[in-house]
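Re: your question from the hallway

Yes, I did run it. Sequences:
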Amino acid sequence: MSEHHYTPSSKFGKWFNDRLPLLTLGDHLASYPTPKNLNYWWTFGGILTFCLVTQIVTGLVLAMHYVAHADMAFDSVEHIMRNVNYGWLIRYIHSNGASMFFLAVYIHIFRALFYGSYKSPREIIWILGMLIYLLMMATAFMGYVLPWGQMSFWGATVITNLFSAIPLVGESIVTWLWGGYAVDNPTLTRFFSLHYLFPFIILGLVVLHIWALHVPGNNNPVGIDIKKPSKDTVPFHPYITIKDLFALLIFLIIFSGFVFFSPNVLGHSDNYIQANPMVTPKHIVPEWYLLPFYAILRSVPDKLGGVVLLFASIFILMALPWLDRSKVRSAIFRPIYKQFFWLLVLDVLVLGYVGAMPAEGLYLLIARVSTAYYFLHFLVILPVLSSFEKTEPLPLSISAPVLTGNSNEYK
Amino acid sequence: MEKSGKKNNRRDFLFTASYTVGAVGIGATIWPFIHQMNPDSSVKALATTEVDISQVEPGNSITVLWRGKPVFIKRRTESEISEARSVKLEELKHPEKDEDRVQKPEWLVMMGICTHLGCVPLSDKGEYNGWFCPCHGSHYDTAGRIRKGPAPVNMEIPKYEFVDNNTIKIG
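Structure:
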């Protein structure tokens, strides 16, 4: 936290602040010393906060018009689209907002991977972030079930059936999740309830995430520890607020592009067919942001094995701070890690692509190789690199290379 | 000095312009979130209701739902009509002629909502043989006019028309 003590200028402000130090908090947030070399990859934290608030506000509105009942859910969504004033806009913001949220979170996560933001002393920030990501996936999945279209229904069936792979108790757990012997009205109503709850838990975790961030302060592109406040920092306001706002503006242009010009391009047309428990669509796929994990699931020719690998692929990320033991954070100074980083990005994109394709022939082979590489990266490459990689020399401060004119220190 | 003053003016203009565009944008974004709570088109589509009144005997009334609210359709007897028309306007809290409240003297079409706090009054009750509101004790006469109690004005007459002798269209 900031070192200097804050005293409100007005008498009332002082009286209030002595009882509830909101003004001290505001001052801390405004003057929070931020590394002056943060690039635009660092603006996604603010963008993600915006996404969360947007989803909560639009979701709140949708819940005023939506009916969580197997017989009425589908029609109530059409009612929102056709009858409710601006209902189409609010629903399209919410459904595309989920995609934009994941787009931003993936950039945010890969930024952390590139610049080593998960390393000491920021492990808790990273783990909180992973919990948020996990809850986001659960929330998005349950939200996708609510319109009660064909993809909703069969997505819900497939994902809940994952738990049936658990030995002995699997079947009972699935029955418990469903509240019946198939996905039906009890499943829908509980998903609605939890879909409403989870965003607020995420919000709470976001507060902790930011709190934990404000203890050591931001990591930065060169990944070195800096003195705060110093010549290497700028106050959060106005320097970072204005930069975040500008990035948000660009982000909103893309967001609006989807909402107004191709609102259904990221969805699946089968979800405009009402849920039918008698017929499964020919080719069922999850939303794009879950595809890499879907590919991992399908690449294993064993029910339990696939599910285990699916969950392992997410939980392995939580162990990352202890798998990558290199003291150097930023990939800028890690010539070999840098290449493996981009290989991992490619690997995840490939997994996403084959996740959308039928699980057969060449696609299945590619999915298996990519899945193997995904685990190889975290379990073998990172630990080995930690010991053997020869890193480049770090600058003493953010300003040092610029002031001494030695621009070779970092690029 | 002159140069810096000029610069400030340009900057002021940029600030004002940015804030204005920002305010308009935020306003335009907020409006859909407010307007979504207004009646939607499925509600507006129910703006009229047609009622068959051929089965209503003199002295009886029926209650129909229009826009989610009860509407009283009363076929008044001769004595009820004359009772309503004999009252002097000075005696009324909210002076209105009975002739102005009906299209045909026999038929009184009126919102069945007490003008005090929105309860539904009971028919053929109260001190004026009209309606009585059980919530806070407002008495209405045979023309639905407030005579006694806390209600401020007469019961509202909705827009309606006789499609033919046996059908009323409300709304």
